[in-house]
TrEMBL record:
Record has Mitochondrion as a keyword: no
Species of provenance: Reinekea forsetii
Domain of life: Bacteria
UniProt-listed InterPro entries: DhaK_dom, DhaL_dom, DhaL_dom_sf, Dihydroxyacetone_Kinase
GO molecular-function term, one example from the UniProt record: glycerone kinase activity
Stretches that traverse the bilayer: none
Keyword Transferase: yes
Enzymatic class: transferase
GO CC terms: cytosol
Protein name per Swiss-Prot or TrEMBL: Dihydroxyacetone kinase, ATP-dependent
Record's keyword terms, sorted: ATP-binding, Kinase, Nucleotide-binding, Transferase
One GO term of the biological process aspect: glycerol catabolic process
Amino acid sequence: MKQFINAKENMVTEAIDGAIASSGGALTRLDGYPHLRVVVRADWDKTKVALVSGGGSGHEPAHAGFVGAGMLTAAVCGDVFASPSVAAVLAGILAVTGPAGCLLIVKNYTGDRLNFGLAAERARAFGYKVSMVIVDDDVALPDLPQARGLAGTLFVHKIVGAMAENGATLAACTSAAQRVVNGCRSIGMSLDTCTVPGSVKEDRIPEDMAELGLGIHGEAGVQQVSCLGAQDAVAKVVDKLSVTLPNTPHVVLVNNFGGTSVLEMSILTHDLLSSPIGEQVQLIVGPASMMTALDMHGFSISMMELAEGDAALLAQPVSCAGWPGCHRVQAPALLPLPDGLSPIRSPASAHPPTKAFLTGCCEILIASENDLNALDAKSGDGDTGSTLAGAARALIEAMDTLPLADHTQLYRAIGLELSQTMGGSSGVLLAIFFAAAGDASSSGLPMREALQAGLDRMRQIGGANPGDRTMVDALVPALDALSDGLRHAASAARAGADYTATLSTAKAGRSAYVNAEQLIGHVDPGAEAVARLFEHLAS
């Protein structure tokens, strides 16, 4: 089982106990395991309107993660993707409701509506003041009479939670909650399904496709669509949202379904704010995991119309673990580079043969991106091809700004360009290589000797030598053989690169941390890149 759980029947109670234990005393629970799983504010005194929500587990941090001052009073937790029982909901209501009354915030799923609804009726029969709102913010199917409740529910938690904390009445809280629901729209997209503990993972989404308009329980989306990257994904989501979106100021909530990396979520946020509806977004919540679907590799976008006073309620501090805060969207005030760091560039000069030569070298690296990444995945982190290809693309883009007619200055300019556009240690090493080659060329050394001087400086600073399983294994023999012509240099580079596949240990670079079984039989990706470059030149 590829999940960090113990017994399936105990995982919800163990997760709740973990959340309570790490809350610093802010949370507690009702005594009722395993059937009654109700997380409660430890400081609650029943003097204000209580807010109770909940539903199936698997959506963490929803719902226990939003229990705290300024948001929920209690969360009622069911099994994974299953509504809690009427008894559990009723226990939660009775435990936290005082004279001010209680508001139930329920997502529009049949089980939740029925169980929370019946519990509310029984609580009223006991004499408690209880009202309920149903959140139906999903716009995947505009004509659906029973739209699902998604992450827009959190806007209700936050705005009404702040009102209740400030002493608002049950009637005012209920009215505000319904207003928020009416002004909220959400839609989700995912590249993969989620892994439900104890069940076989469903494999229904083909490669290069995504599901648009899906809920938070692993159910199928409204349609499968092609997915050509983050910008394309956001465009498809925005198309659905914008159909009924009024041209008024909004707050957006960018929610991670649980399996999307932080890097991806930041890119999606950038593309959303750059989209046609980005100008309407004044406030943003996230990106963060707030209402997840276990480990689903997807995201949802929730938009809510801003009314007077909402910004202050959204910004009001809370004491719960799951709320990431609400921030105003604004362009950053860029700071100038410190003195001495702004690059001094040599004047550009045209030289068509040199431009063609460099462009050809760059195109070889770009074409080799996937192959080099695959090699690097055997012994590193799988990004050598992307790093080299990214630098090659940047160099092509900067080609007309380079001193192509002055090779001495060109070496230095390439070194400067690589230091700014090429990541990792390889970018630094190659920047040193070309800068030192430029220095050698300025002293009158011909090309081969200048490049040899650059290699010596790179080896001195980087510490890599032949036999250490790096690009040096191909570069040293290639430059040594260059005086005999490009064909000899290409043969020497290829032999040096192939030699790295016989080495069971690496003494430099990331491969130094990899065991022999993963190294033997795989050419070092840096050496392979050097060999391909010289083979291109020889042809």
